[in-house]
Amino acid sequence: MTEERGPRIVLGVCGGIAAYKAVEVCRLLVDAGAHVVPVLTKEATRFVGALTFSALASEPAQASLWDEDTPIPHTRLGQSADLILVVPATAHLMARYAAGLADDLLTATLLATRAPVLLCPAMHTEMWEHASVRENQATLERRGVGIVPPAVGHLAGGDTGAGRLADPQEIASRALAVAARGGSPAAARDLAGQHVVVSAGGTREALDPVRYLTNRSSGKQGHALAEAAARRGAEVKLVTASGLALPADVQPAVTRIDVESAADMETALHALSEWADIVIMAAAVADFRPKVAATRKLSKEDGLPELVLEPTPDILQGLVAGRHPGQVLVGFAAETNDVAERGRAKLRRKGVDLLVVNDVSAPGAGFDHDTNAVTIFGADGSTGEIALTSKDAVAHAVLDRVIAHQRQNRSSK
Ligand code: PMT
Predict the structure, then answer these.
(1) Looking at ligand 1, which residue's alpha carbon is closest to its atom 27?
(2) pLDDT in tens, 118-153
(3) Separation between Cα atoms, residue 166 and residue 385, nearest integer Å
(4) Centre of ligand 1 from the C-alpha of residue 170, in Å
(5) Best exposed site among 216, 242, 256, 337 by fewest CB in 10 Å?
(6) What is the CATH number of domain 195-411?
(7) Which residues approach ligand 1 with their CB closer than 6 A?
């Protein structure tokens, strides 16, 4: 047993092929100074032996609710944990946890804790996208459970698709950040002291005083980013063309600047650029606007109006041109095909550090949904795919990537 120094993390492991990667997560956490207590489901032990975890972790692995040496082990585990991390979380575990079942040591521990809980799901695409799993995830997130969304890639049995366990290094970093600060998993506060500017919503370009051109953006993804950054300790300025409200508890950390047109958004963002350590452009800025907006309401009696359009300013391009050293710029893009090729080309064209591409052809992704599926391209050549998940989980995954980018930049200096 190792001497207890860092956060105490209960590492739950479920029965899925990705259980072997939980071994790596265990090692990374222990190396980082955490006190790791593995709790395996019966099914997990079919994939990886308890002995493997016992050898690497800070305490022997446990798998039984009926361990006679330690009465009521779930309450001891739950009460003493700084974090419960489940790697991989199967559809079965998510369903049992959402339903409040406590039929083994892991589910009983999950119910017997007030510590933050972080689930790292991994399963086949069909299961991950099944309505019951989507609903269970939404239920758990509503209760404050954090989700590290799965990636897209090779799955068991030779399949490829959404549902692959997130990268073990990313899981360990997120877990350590959450465990260090306590509170809700969203409250890792690893952005404390940073100034974050987020743009959101679809701009409205006036035709006349009562009509405008716009797009389908609801502002949900941008608002989720502003909320996530605030929960993680950042001071946030949200430049939004959306009427969505922010949750009351994050409002003190978010200054909201409501705008309507691309021109308003450009003025607001340029004024904030100097202040910002991180700028995230999730807004769907109109590419064109009426060259002239009528000053009075156009009426049928005037005949059919002639619509002459002109391009709007490329706000992101202006931000890139005026960026200050160390500032991280993140762009978004909505694509339907050749996501990798188009994403990399746009990343280079826009000159941003990270480009988050929504695959809006995927059901449930992109405009106006509560969920999204994205690929994050880095200027360093990195690519990370986030399978369909809540916009909140996407927001946290994007912020994780921003923090990793900052860390990488610091270490290369
Ligand atoms: O709001 P939701 O309903 O939740 O939907 C979220 C979303 C799909 C709108 C969001 O996730 C998203 O993808 N936003 C970017 C939409 C887009 O297609 O952007 P683009 O490819 O036109 O532009 C690329 C980047 O340049 C974006 O960061 C955009 O903000 C920026 N841009 C675009 C045009 C312009 N004139 N100025 C800009 O700065």
Answers:
(1) 332
(2) 999 999 999 999 999 999 999 999 999 999 999 988
(3) 9
(4) 26
(5) 337
(6) 3.40.50.10300
(7) 201, 217-222, 262, 281-285, 287, 312, 314-316, 331-334, 358, 366-368
Å from CA of 216 to ligand 1 middle: 11
| pLDDT score, position 302 | 86
Domains 8-187 and 195-411 share a fold: yes
Q: 99: CA distance to ligand 1 center in Å?
A: 37
Is 409 one of the catalytic residues?
no
**Architecture of the domain whose range is 8-187:** 3-Layer(aba) Sandwich (3.40)
Out of 332, 349, 357, 371, give the residue to mutate to test ligand 1, the one with the largest number of ligand atoms within 8 Å of its CB.
332
Q: At residue 157, does pLDDT exceed 90?
A: no
Mean local confidence (pLDDT), 15-40: 97
Determine the residue of 280, 289, 316 to mutate for testing ligand 1's pocket, defined as the one with the most ligand atoms within 8 A of the Cβ atom: 316
Ligand 1 atom closest to 357 (CA): 13
Domain ranges across the chain: 8-187, 195-411
Ligand 1 atom having least distance to the Cα of 218: 3
Beta strands in 14-165 (DSSP E): 35-40, 83-89, 117-121, 146-147, 151-154, 160-164
The residues, ordered by sequence, that sit 6+ positions from 132 with a Cβ below 8 Å of its Cβ are 91, 95
Q: Which of 53, 78, 173 is nearest to 120 (CA)?
A: 173
pLDDT at 71 over 80: no
Question: Which ligand 1 atom is the nearest neighbour of the CA of 283?
Answer: 30
Inter-residue contact 396 to 225 (CB < 8 Å): no
Residue ID of nearest Cα to ligand 1 atom 37? 314
Please state the atom number of ligand 1 nearest to the C-alpha of residue 316: 39
* pLDDT reading at 340 higher than 80: yes
List, for residues 178-229, the tens digit of each pLDDT value: 887 665 555 568 899 999 999 999 999 999 999 999 999 999 999 999 999 9
145-182 exposure pattern, b = at least 16 Cβ within 10 A, e = fewer: bbbbbbbbeebeeeeebbbbbbbbebbbbbbbbbbebb
**SS3 breakdown of the chain: % helix, strand, coil, rounded to 5?**
35, 25, 40
pLDDT confidence band for 266 (50 / 70 / 90) = very high
The mean-pLDDT minimum among 176-180, 235-239, 383-387 falls in: 176-180
